[in-house]
Amino acid sequence: MTEQALSYVDTHFSRFVEELKDLLRIPSISTDPDYAPEVRRAADWLAEHFRKLGFLKVEVFETEGHPIVYAEYTVDATRPTVLVYGHYDVQPPDPLELWTSPPFEPEIRDGNLYARGACDDKGQLFMHVKAAEAYLKTAGTLPVNLKFLLEGEEESGSVHLAPFIEAHRELLAADVVVISDTAMFAPGVPSITYGLRGLAYVEVELTGPARDLHSGVYGGAVENPINVLARLIAGLHDEDHRITIPGFYDDVRPLTEEERRTFRELPFDEKAWMEEIGVSAVRTEKGYTILEAITARPTLDVNGIWGGYQGKGAKTVLPAKAGAKISMRLVPDQDPDDIVEKTRRYFEQKTPPTCKLRFTSLHGGHPVLVDTRHPAMQAAAEAMARVFGRRPYFTREGGSIPVVADFKRLLGLDSVLMGFGLNSDAIHSPDEHFGLDRFRQGIESIVHFLERYGQRPT
């Protein structure tokens, strides 16, 4: 059954690429209301594609935002059920002038398919669709019961996804979730992500005088909000690069010695990594390596800061306001709501009476850790080993995928994050691309995964 499916992939791979190009031509930009009809067109395209493949239950669910595509193929109640999550919306392509070829006119160069969404996430979600097709067209069935949940708002916050999941628990019932929206550790080095950091994102604004003032007339007596904000931000880290917010580390789950050993075994070239991002030195939390610091330890970063005069030349202004956007990446067992409140108290206690504080929590998400001994994790590892000729590493990622925590919280389901992108694929940037070799390897890995996980008794 599996060998026939793999042979089908080999025979029809060129068509798979052309079909992916058709999907990539649809500019399904979820953040821009002007593109709402295109987001809808992408949803309808996928729904029709599932129907052509023989999925008997296909529905496009309306939300207050963009639609959610659901498809289901039931084989046997005794077989395990896999729920595949992906997103068909994409980031805006700006700045357009930095693209080598138009972002919605897919082009193959040097074995890579260039287009917005090629890797994030149309190319990766389409691997699952084609793996299912390979079984359906050769065996007339699947090794598992298979469900797809594809949203059109991931790039704009997934506002309506969690309510949808909560309202459709029975429809989405499964044994495991599989997501391909992550990256391999390195070219030719497969990996499965077992940990994601959470997120707490806040905005801080300080107001001093009622209006901008002349610094020569009022400077020295009236507090400058930019100066105050700079002091508060500078105080957020100590000399060991640890975050100084009281209680910030209270619930941090320490890394195990086994985890730290795995980090040391990863083929990570620090010098090459630094050269790639253009830095000559790094600063991590004392006692932790670069990999540990960027994937498995909590962080606090200022993402934006503003205030005062920003134009050309000089203007001797004492500004009325200063602000900053601050994100905190969280690890198990930190709670984003708790961290937001601790951060609020820090700023409330540190802000002098000469300024008024406005503190806003923007959004957040819980960290995730999946047991690598989970049967689906082991099935994925075995499947990828068959394709790549080497067993994948289990790794953590520093970013956040909030829906992974939602699946656990609302459905009680763990997620297998078997991604085939690379950090060099320029997702969210001009010239986003996806290697056709990895597109094929992804399809083949999923074919093997479905077969191996399908052997697991329910």
UniProtKB/TrEMBL annotation:
Residues 194-354 form the Peptidase M20 dimerisation domain. Coiled coil: none annotated. Keywords: Hydrolase, Metal-binding, Protease. SUPFAM superfamilies: Zn-dependent exopeptidases. GO terms for molecular function: metal ion binding; peptidase activity. GO terms for biological process: proteolysis. Gene3D superfamilies: 3.30.70.360, Zn peptidases. It holds the Pfam family M20_dimer. It comes from the Bacteria. NCBIfam families: PRK07907.1 (NF005914), PRK08201.1 (NF006053), PRK09104.1 (NF006579). This is Peptidase M20. The lineage of its organism: Bacteria, Pseudomonadati, Rhodothermota, Rhodothermia, Rhodothermales.
